[in-house]
Amino acid sequence: MSTMQNQKLRIGVLTGGGDCPGLNAVIRAVVRKAERVWGDQVIGFQNGWKGLLDDEWQPLDIEALRGTLPRGGTIIGTSRIQPYMFDDGVERVRATAERHKLDALVVIGGEGTLSVARQIDEEGFLAVVGVPKTIDNDIAATEMTFGFQTAVQIAVDAIDRLHSTAESHHRIMLVEVMGRHVGHIATWAGIAGGATMILVPEEPFDIDEVAKILQWRHETNRYASIVVVAEGAQPVPGTLDLPPVEVDEFGHKRLGGIASVVASEIELRTGTETRVLVLGHIQRGGTPCAYDRVLCTRYGVAAIDAVHEGKKGQMVALKGDRIVCVPLEDATTELKYVAPKLLDTAKVFYPPAT
After folding, report:
1. For 33-42, what is each residue's pLDDT tens digit?
2. Number of neighbouring beta carbons within 10 Å of residue 121
3. For the segment 236-284, what is each residue's pLDDT rounded down to a tens digit?
């Protein structure tokens, strides 16, 4: 795609994968810059890649996006359906793109959605620019994905409230947060919420060690403990039996419930009443925080500019205080894990094991 600085374009937008606070803020920014500055026409494909497969769409203009900056979810819908699930999927996408005379497509999604975006871009019939979205903050090549800060704040608010009830009843409380393969939410929320311990996928936990730390704490007149557990946390092999994990129709493991298993083992080992709070989809719903609203706005503006600069096969990314473009391949070949130094920072506040 050559530079299109002075051309008026037809741009498609889609949101794929799980919903996330800030999706509408990105769409709003794309449309505002596209319509007001570049004179483009923008259409939204409904329910992710399914909209391109089935030619389901809606016009997007400034009026249609009014009031959406603080609105959660996505006004154009989302799904996990994608073209490579069907033998004729790519041709259906090609036909829709040609029917609408699209010059480019802005794809807003996580690792899975952006991997498909890279493949479609490589097919050569449609220029694609990506925007990194996931509350897990696990997309490589960007310092921050939008939705993450909102999810962390929701978790911290819950932890803050749990401290008082845990202290009143002298309980151990486990808070299970999202984090399938990485523990960014658990780590940030645990540090900000003053958690006693944090269990993340990056470091398998020893249940005996966890129990010893909590038991020491309660034997030394600390009357409450909060443990933050990422849904993808795993025990050291051979130390704890976990129930079998189901797989959904898209090949994703149905995670959730690890905190309940850990809580039962902790109560058994310590004799202290242990309760569980699973935040689940609450972390993904509702209005985005101020940080995410600003980041989404910057991403959306940068994405439409990238289209006009001919940066096909790129993703907008946060680097320091700048929004830059990076190859979609760099953003989708590996996950971004929690830095060991950040995990070490959290451990400074762990009680000693005796």
Report:
1. 999 999 999 9
2. 24
3. 998 887 766 666 555 555 566 899 999 999 999 999 999 999 999 999 9
61 is catalytic: no
- Domain range summary for the chain, segments of one domain joined by +: 10-146+288-332, 149-284
Selected catalytic residue, list 40, 103, 136, 305: 136
Q: Superfamily assignment of 149-284 in CATH?
A: Phosphofructokinase domain (3.40.50.460)
Tell me whether strands 127-132 and 172-177 are parallel, antiparallel or unpaired: unpaired
The architecture CATH gives domain 10-146+288-332:
3-Layer(aba) Sandwich (3.40)
pTM beyond 0.90, yes or no = yes
